């Protein structure tokens, strides 16, 4: 338990750093900053309603589209350059077909999540749906998955946080976290856990791969449509607000001590310091995130060695 506390405290600090860095990059004007704040507040308030998250991102896109549509379009530097002739092995019609396949699988994923009791299909549908609606990168997945896998009881809060700490200590994208969650969701046996990891991995990565393949032959045709650019700004701002909400939610359920349940990080000054040091070390000293997480675990072990009674229920 002491090791876990150190690991998850460091993970909370790294998540806070991701939120801070996203906020600096995405919050470029008053509208996007207001969307970040509103999205975070609504996500915290309505955290038990999973569909609030994609609705917030959609609403953010609509807001910035409405606000910035009348703005003069900036010069398209990329389009002004000599555009080399790029040949694709498939036509734009194939791209449209791939897009239709992505949409059809998304409908199937929603059906699997709500119209079947087969856990494996439910797991695949959840991760495919998550991979389809994420804007802003891996950190945005943290609040979405917490709601989608902890809410149904597939994982406990502690298991989720330990996995988050572990994935930060390992190489590779944060999306690999889906394999961990999928394995625990189908943990009845080793074989089912492996199948769950595969379903989670494929579910979360497949939508992006299909959409990239679909967009390549269409990019030259549609990249000049600037009407979509303001919408993506708002969606990214709302997604960033979800990461800030995740920091708050993780902070409130990260540490386990004498009580059986999880408590707020601030209840333990040592682990509050660990979270703060993880934020500073990774953000300002360029210490690698895996090393930050490992050091957090070491501090947890030292805390247990100094006061083992704190970890006796």
TrEMBL record:
Stored InterPro entries: Chromate_transpt (IPR003370)
This protein's UniProt keywords: Cell membrane, Membrane, Signal, Transmembrane, Transmembrane helix
Localization: Cell membrane
Annotated GO CC locations: plasma membrane
Span of the signal peptide: 1-18
Family to which this protein belongs: Belongs to the chromate ion transporter (CHR) (TC 2.A.51) family.
Entry protein name: Chromate transporter
Organism field: Synchytrium endobioticum
